Structures are given as structure tokens and as C-alpha cells.
Amino acid sequence: MTAQPVFRIAPSRSLDAEVMRILDETGGRVIGHLEDREGDHGKALHEARKGIKKLRALLLLVRAADKPLMKGEGRRLRDAARLIAGPREATAAVETVDRFIAAFPEKVEACHLAEIRDALDARHARITGQALDEARDEAAAMCRAALERLRRSQPLADVSDGAVLAKGFAKALKHWGKALEKARARGEPEEFHELRKAVKAHWAQLGLLRDFMGGNIRKRRAEVEELGERLGEINDIHVMRDGLASGALGLPEAIDTKPFDRLLRKNVGALSKQALSEARRLLADAPEKPKKRLRRSIAKAA
């Protein structure tokens, strides 16, 4: 396994060199998790998907340098993550029930949470195996192909660093704003999922730019991360409710899942209200004039 990558752009080095360093280090770690057959499979897949999200946030940040290239390789990385989504979602389903067991011990018996958890744990075990190994190998190959194409292209050499970074930073915030507006208007699971992606991208970009941005970036990043986790819980609940309704979770018919679904519905309503309030506050408090700040920081470091 490669060493833990430093996921931040150093002002003392050129943008193209830093982007390739981060791609190589983070990408290498992702591939290592995908090829790891000895450790905890669930944890490895989770870390691989987190790393791919970071890589995609980086490509979004420098997208203005070569939009077709960054967009195309971002999609390739997205498709790699989708190959291993099934096992990760099976793990998340077990974790979701575990959270409810911990949060509502008085509901365990009435909502049949222990029986549901056992069935989901057995389903998770069935999903792992040869098919998963093949999916992980294919995902690793796709990540390698994306990294190799980006490495060969060198698209950043002749572009203004500050302008490129500012455009990518603003785009993630614009995505956040649009997703928030739709989530507040319609409240559908898809809108909350889009909001979560935008929040996660902004969180990753704050990490990349922490040496360039003024203000209390550490505090903001912690708050954005907390919002992302809450939106992740909301997404897990929506996925669980959809699985219960469709029968896709493969639970025994003898288990009455209606009490659990009612508990999920009540809980997700409260979480959604809180998340929308926080998302609106954090978006309104986003760093102002990032282009000027970034250009000033880059000029000072030069």
C-alpha cells in the first residue's frame, strides 16, 4: 500500500506538477485499495470510493485547463466507482441498521431490527466473491487508464493557475446552489444525492486549496464535512426505503418491514430539514472573490 497522500496543492510548486503528484499519490492509493485482497473488503472499497471522489473533485477544480479531457476522465473514474457500488451499498445497508439499533434501542424489537440486520449481513456475504474480485480488477484498470491519459496530456502548463482554480472552485459552489434549490423545492432523494455530491466536492477542494485561501478554512471544512456526513445518512435511508419497497434487499417475507420503514421516514424528515438549513447557511458563507485570493496567493508564492 502506498503512503498516505498529501491531498493539498503546495503554493511553492507549479500547478501542473502538484496536480500530477496528487493524481499519482491518491490514484495509487485507490488502486492499492482495489487490489487489496487481504484486508477488510468493506473498508477497502469504502476507501477506494472516497479516493475516487477526491480525484474527481481535483479534476473539477482544474477543469478549465482542458474541459473535454477533465470531463471525460472524470466520467471514467465515476464509472470505475460504479463497478464497486453494489458491495459498498450492501455494507452501507448493514451500517444503516446498526445506526438505528444504537440510536433507537427501544425500537429494536418492534421494528425487527435484529432480524433485518442478520438478513442484510448474510446478503452482504453473498455479494462478495469472484464477481467482486473481477469488478475490483476492472475498476483498477479503469483508474490506471484515466491516470495514464492525464499524465500524458500535460494540459496545465500554459494556463493561468489562479484563473483555472477559481473557475473550478466556483463551479462546485454553483452545483451546490442548484442542487440545494431543487432539494428545497422538491425534496426528492435524487436532489439530496446531487447536493451531497456538490458538498463533498467543495470539501475536497477546500482541502486542496487550504494553503491559498484566507479565513478560517479549517473550521469551514469541518462544518462542510459534517454536512456531507449528514447527507450521507439521508442517502443511506433513502436507499434503504427504496430497497424495502422494491424487495431488492432480499429480506425474508416473514419479516414485517413496515414499522422500520415508518421509523426511517420519520428520521429522514428531521435529518433533511436540518441538512437543508445547514446547506443554505454554509453556501451563503462561502469564501468571496476566490479568483483574487488565489491569484494573490500564487503571485506571492512565485
From TrEMBL:
Location of region: Disordered: 283-302
SMART domains (alphabetical): CHAD
InterPro entries, A to Z: CHAD_dom, CHAD_dom_sf
Every CHAD domain range: 12-295
Basic residues biased stretches: 290-302
Stored Pfam families: CHAD (PF05235)
PANTHER family found in the cross-reference section: CHAD DOMAIN-CONTAINING PROTEIN, SLR1444 PROTEIN
Record's protein name: CHAD domain-containing protein
